[in-house]
Amino acid sequence: MDTIRGHLQQSTSVPLQRSLAVFDQMEEEEGGGASRLELRFVTAEADEEVEAEPGSDITALMLRHHQDKRKACAFLCVCGVITFTAAFLLAYAVFSGCYHCSKEGGQKNEDGQPGGGAKPPPEGGAGFYLGDLRVMMKRLLQDEDIFNTVSRVSRANHPPGSSEGTSLASEILGRFRNLQMDHTWTESLYATLQFPDRSQKSSLWLVNSEGLILEQILLNPFDFCPYSATGSIMGGVVYANYGRPQDFKWLESTGVSMVGCVVVMRVGGGVSFAEKVWLAESYRAGGALIYPDPADLPQDPRRLGLSTHTAVSEHVHLGSGDPFTPGFPSFNHTQFPPIQSSGLPLIPALPISASVAAKLLSQLSGPSCPPSWRVRLPYVRCVVGPGLSSGRRVKMSVHNVMTPVLLNNIFSSLEGRVEPDQYIILGAQRDSLGPGAVKSGVGTAILLELARTFSAMVTNGFSPRRSLLFVSWDAGDFGNVGATEWLEGYLSMLHLKAVAYFSLDQAIMGDDVLSACSSPLLVDLLDAAIRQVEHPKHAGQTIYSQAEREGGSWRIMKPLYLNSGAYSFTAFAGVPAMELRFTEERAYPFVNTPLDTASRLQEVLGGRLGMTGRSLGELVGEMVLRLAHDHILPLRITSYAQTVLQFSAQLNRHSAELQSRGLSPQWVFSARGDYSRAAETLQRAIDYSDMHDLITARSYNTRIMRVEYYFLSQYVSVVETPFRHVIHGRGNHTLSALTEHLALLTSDPERFDEKHFRRQLAFFTWTLQGAAHGLSGDIHNTHTYTHTR
């Protein structure tokens, strides 16, 4: 027996004299095998009714027992049954509560993580244990809704500003409103996007040594790289593998000049289109062509309809948001003068198909490629160029136009009952240059399904401690424009409001391997969640147990990357963020192509699209439940101490060389120690405090929510360097830049710039020291350099 519910059926028109009916066996609850018992009161027969004074019915019955011994016996039976029932229910409640206390008691919740504890009913609503909420969520999540929504979203191209995009936005807004959420609204903004010029198409030609056209290479006019530089260039061809830093360094070491050449690069290699083009530009290339090589695709891509004539489109802005308002919002009420992002490329870039790449690479001469650069293209022997047969060259011309487009972000929220001003945010991009089953369909479907599920849970009595915010972003295919512009508009308040962000973009590209890019603060949440959720491909096995079975401990965490929907939240706004993804061992080949349809995705998954979407939704839902339920936010506040410790070890290895140049690493060591002590002290204080005290919990949560924000450097301009996070950001202020500069002491001492390194070290040290002060919480608990040195 899972539950016993007492239902008291009363009617104001019926006297209070009643007899107690037997326990009636009820129907099995929908979706489960547990039966329930109903304790039901029924009206006594009319000829047995007796009059009684208002409010003293039992006394009246007792005074009249001599009139009818049978009635007295019946009454005593009633009293006995009531007493027994009350005692039974009381005992059930006590021992059930003790059971949950034993599971969730102390300073641990039932996942064994800090910050949980046995929860009394939340203020303002019915109380549920975390296990009850999990059961409710699993019961409400539906596979069919996910599959149907992916099919609906990806039935046609829906780029920002198109009629299809506007229609989809209206549909999602309507679905949010039908869910009976607490608040639903939209925010509009104008952003500058780039599209192909309708009057003049981008082109590619083979020309002779005099520049006369020998052959035009046909391109699909709809394939383009948003934010490419426009214009024409002509030069030789260089093959640069994936266009990674190590690939360009190898070409340079071999003596291959890329100056003025068109660089041909493969899709993938862990490098975005924007990074490939930026690196080509930094080596003074004249243009960039990017193609999908069959060697990087499933063994038989043609089985799913992928031909060698398919190109992959992706933006090439080395940043996110509107590139003409870097660091500040492009909302309608703002009138900032246009400032061009430094991440916009200065060379033209085009996506090409494998067949076009084969035509170019088959004519190359020059040094041979390394073995790892081998391609799978017909008639191509792997050489790097830059020469072409018969003195030929390539001419490329890109004709794109910048266009202001009205964008709409759609929001819907469930208000928290205790801390409504703290938001757990879930988001997914809505737009796509192609059908976008993976690019926008799965994220939108899981977003809507989670919104429906949590709304239904609230209707069934769930009372979230903190607010849940569900967002459908616009212009994601252009560099997360909608999300980044919103962040820029609310930057000053987000570190006090946003608990965490979960990106649902491209959440399903397979159903075999789970990967995650995440802020380290959310690692414990994910670790607990994968132990609860069943693997979509292996029934009866959790994601964690399946990973353990296949390769030891699970190692699915990756650092946040520039094109991730979660990246701006952490690197720009200082909000802990995570992006989850189910994939296959080999890449899903259709993203950013016209072939990214629901039917192909369903075929790749063997018909398990709905099931995989449900598992991903349940995984995110598990983490959201913890954040919405626990009194203290279950974030790992000590995570960055280990990262800085690793850097300190590198500094220590170069200590003698640094000191010979008048540089002391002691300042960094002290700041790291201050941060570690502050984090550990705060964690101990949380472990030994009364978490049910609202003021105490609020104080601790405020400090926890600011941890990520503390690592945004105060010493760089948000306009010039939007990604200010010293761990995850980009620029000279970051730990990665400092580490690379430090490595020059041994690899290339002549290039080591002592003055610049001193500045980098000082900026990083003071950012870390500021984080330590912030975690300490009170001025009298902070320890500055003057106090500790």
**Domain count:** 4
Major sheet details = 8 strands, mixed
The CATH architecture classification of the largest domain is 3-Layer(aba) Sandwich
User: CATH H-level name of the largest domain... which superfamily?
Assistant: Zn peptidases
Cα distance, first to last residue?
A: 65 Å
What proportion strand?
A: 15-25%
Outline the low-pLDDT stretches: 1-78, 91-126, 784-789
Mean pLDDT: 83
Give the overall shape. globular
Rounded radius of gyration (Å): 32 Å
Total number of helices: 24
Give, in spatial order, the strands making up the sheet with the most strands.
5-16-18-17-19-22-20-21
Number of strands: 22
Q: What is the name of the CATH topology of the largest domain?
A: Aminopeptidase
Q: Structural class, from secondary structure content?
A: alpha/beta
Report the top-level CATH class of the largest domain: Alpha Beta
**Percent in helix:** 25-40%
Family: Belongs to the peptidase M28 family. M28B subfamily.
Protein name: Transferrin receptor protein 2 isoform X1
Keywords: Membrane, Receptor, Transmembrane, Transmembrane helix
Architecture overview:
The chain has 789 residues and is an alpha/beta fold. It folds into four domains: 18-99, no CATH class; 130-193 and 403-629, Zn peptidases (Aminopeptidase, 3-Layer(aba) Sandwich); 201-398, Glucose Oxidase, domain 1; 639-788, Up-down Bundle (Transcription Elongation Factor S-II, Chain A). It is 38% helix and 15% strand. The protein has 24 helices and 22 strands. The strands form six sheets. Strands 5-16-18-17-19-22-20-21 form an eight-stranded mixed β-sheet, sandwiched between helices. The protein has a four-stranded antiparallel β-sheet with strand order 7-6-15-8, with no helix packed on it. It has a four-stranded parallel β-sheet with strand order 9-10-11-12, with helices on both faces. Strand 10 (262-266), helix 7 (273-282) and strand 11 form a beta-alpha-beta unit. Helix 3 (130-140) packs across helix 9 (437-459) and helix 9 packs across helix 16. It starts with 17 loop residues before the first strand and ends with a helix. Keywords: Membrane, Receptor, Transmembrane, Transmembrane helix.
